[in-house]
Design brief:
The structure is a single chain. By secondary structure, this protein is mainly β. The protein has one domain. It is built from no helices and 5 strands. The strands form 2 sheets. The protein has a 3-stranded antiparallel beta sheet, with no helix packed on it. It is elongated and about 45 Å long. The two termini are 19 Å apart.
């Protein structure tokens, strides 16, 4: 996922938060599980960096026949 710093100063801290949804066979959203990871800093002013994160959900949170979709991503720059 590309992260672009369009500001005038470097980003030195921050987090990315993912909202992973547990979806049933009919497509209904049963729950959302959030997880956060640090950003790949520093990100210089005007630069773009690539980041990849693994999102894990405990097996007991996903009953048989359901699946997980990460639908929400939120970045907080420091």
């Amino acid at each position: 996922m590309p992260l672009a710093n369009s500001g005038g100063s470097p980003v030195t801290t921050g987090t990315v938060t993912f909202g992973s949804h547990v979806i049933d066979l009919l497509g209904l959203d049963w729950s959302t599980i959030t997880s956060s990871q640090p950003l790949p800093v520093p990100i210089e002013a005007g630069a773009t960096v690539e980041g990849a994160w693994t999102v894990c959900v405990d097996a007991w949170r996903v009953p048989w026949g359901m699946h997980v979709e990460t639908r929400d991503v939120k970045v907080e720059w420091g």
